[in-house]
Specification:
globular; single chain; 2 strands; mainly alpha; Hypothetical Protein Ta1238, Chain: A; 5 helices
């Protein structure tokens, strides 16, 4: 049996990826912990989506990329040269690809001329919760950046776009309720954004 406990964290510290221990309440563990929370919230949304649909696959893609972001954030800046692009470091291309996802979903919906109240559908509510978790992760990474603890700000740009992408997905997954979502395209359904 593999034991998942090491007892090393019982003193309130945790290991960084390429060595060193820090308090679990310091900025770096707060940042990658928030990213982990966002990835888990996206898992709740993905479980409610139609398996094999474009939406399902796009959620899974962001979840996988959040593991890359987490690896980068779990690495002290002085060890950043050991990270591998697209595997343990977020790349500008990953940010660009998120912008394409945002444009694809936003091209399939008409936003109402007011703030959107979360809860238009079960799936959109789950996505909005994940979006809020991504915004929290982004704020934690802003704190790291302001403290001079980021080797590269691409991960910050990625989290900003990821939350925008999840917002766009949530609007795509909303039910067409005229009372909440005036001006929506009533012919749009939950399967794929490219229709």
């Amino acid at each position: 049996m593999v034991k998942i406990y090491t007892r090393k964290g019982d003193d309130g510290t945790t290991s960084l990826w390429y060595g060193g221990r820090v308090s679990k309440s310091e900025g770096r563990p707060e940042a990658y912990g928030a990213v982990d929370e966002a990835a888990s919230a996206l898992g709740v949304a993905r479980a409610a989506s139609e398996r094999g649909s474009e939406l399902h696959d796009d959620i899974l893609r962001i979840q996988r990329e959040l593991f890359v972001a987490g690896a980068e954030l779990a690495t002290a800046p002085e060890a950043s040269d050991r990270l591998e692009a697209g595997v343990s470091r977020i790349t500008p291309e990953m940010v660009d690809e998120l912008e394409e996802i945002i444009d694809r979903y936003m091209g399939a919906v008409d936003l109402p001329p007011k703030f959107v109240i979360p809860g238009g559908s079960d799936l959109s509510a789950r996505l909005d919760l994940a979006r809020a978790a991504l915004r929290r992760a982004e704020r934690r990474v802003v704190d790291l950046d302001r403290a001079g603890a980021l080797a590269d700000t691409t991960v910050l740009r990625y989290l900003n776009r990821a939350s925008d992408a999840v917002y766009a997905m949530a609007r795509f997954a909303d039910d067409d309720d005229p009372a909440l979502f005036e001006g929506r395209d009533a012919s749009r359904k939950n399967g794929g954004a490219s229709r």
